[in-house]
């Protein structure tokens, strides 16, 4: 009978160390989940910020180019109206858009359209790159999630084994 109490202490010590190991593992698992969740949320916020910035920048460019186009049209209209009002004066056949390469305030329509197309293409490319990054991070998060699920399964199997061994070991 003198051997029985030390066995009980050993069994309870072993059980408490297993329990503390399980608790530590669960705490680490929860910490990893929290870190990954924060990173995912941060990436989502960054994606939204990038999309908003891209949209604002695109809108700014469109507005600026629209104002420039309106100014060009107005200048062209004034030039056409002005040249028609003085019948005896020589008419510049080239019009106000002929010197557009020399005057940045009056670019020609083709150059303006080409600039808009290039800007649109650049913005689309940036959006595609941002979406690719988001997909990559989402997939990486999925890999981490699967790894976490696998670790949970292992811990669950370990806990069941500890419970079974604990039930089989006499106290």
From TrEMBL:
Q: Where is the composition biased (Polar residues)?
A: 79-88
Record-linked Pfam families: DUF2046
Q: Where is this region: Disordered?
A: 79-105
For this UniProt record, give its keywords in alphabetical order, as a comma-separated list: Coiled coil
Source species? Antrodiella citrinella
* Protein name (database record): Uncharacterized protein
Coiled-coil stretches noted in the UniProt entry, renumbered to this chain: 26-60, 106-140
InterPro entries named among the record's database cross-references = DUF2046
Q: Where on the tree of life does the source sit, at the highest rank?
A: Eukaryota
């Amino acid at each position: 009978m003198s051997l029985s109490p030390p066995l009980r202490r050993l069994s309870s010590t072993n059980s408490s160390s297993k329990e503390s190991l399980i608790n530590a593992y669960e705490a680490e698992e929860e910490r990893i989940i929290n870190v990954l969740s924060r990173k995912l949320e941060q990436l989502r916020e960054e994606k939204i910020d990038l999309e908003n910035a891209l949209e604002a920048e695109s809108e700014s460019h469109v507005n600026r180019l629209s104002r420039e186009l309106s100014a060009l049209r107005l200048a062209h209209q004034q030039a056409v109206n002005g040249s028609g009002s003085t019948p005896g004066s020589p008419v510049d056949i080239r019009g106000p858009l002929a010197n557009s390469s020399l005057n940045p305030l009056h670019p020609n329509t083709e150059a303006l359209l080409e600039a808009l197309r290039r800007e649109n293409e650049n913005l689309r490319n940036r959006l595609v790159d941002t979406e690719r990054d988001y997909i990559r991070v989402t997939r990486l998060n999925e890999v981490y999630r699967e790894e976490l699920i696998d670790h949970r399964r292992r811990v669950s199997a370990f806990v069941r084994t500890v419970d079974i061994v604990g039930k089989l070991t006499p106290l």
